[in-house]
Design brief:
0% of the residues lie in helices and 49% in strands. It has 125 residues and is mostly beta strands. Strands 2, 4, 5, 6, 9, 10 and 11 form a seven-stranded mixed β-sheet that branches. A four-stranded antiparallel β-sheet has the order 1-3-8-7, with no helix packed on it. The radius of gyration is 13 Å and the shape is globular. The N and C termini lie far apart (40 Å). The model has no long low-confidence stretch (mean pLDDT 95).
Amino acid sequence: QEQLVESGGGLVQAGGSLRLSCEASGRTFTTYAMGWFRQAPGKEREIAAAISWSGADVYYADSVKGRFTISRDNAKNTMILQMNSLKPEDTAVYYCAGSSRTTYVRTTIPYYDYWGQGTQVTVSS
């Protein structure tokens, strides 16, 4: 059974760091575009960062640019989101997503057909 499992969320003070991991199992995601989305209470799910199958191309939302770094290790079927200088407005449930439809960076939800269960990130002020 194909699945994505996130880990690494938690509670951190503003200015702190967290490292989210997404482990893929049951299917080889090495040729899939991947992304991290987030959803804050009362808001729509939005893209935070995305990465192509090779890792050569990445995308960051303006709100996280310069603070977050997305990477992947295809040998380990793992994707990482390193989050630094966290702000209270980064508080959200973070979802790992994979797209079997493309190898290129994509930033919109319809492209993604595999989703993790989400991990909570809470940043206190």
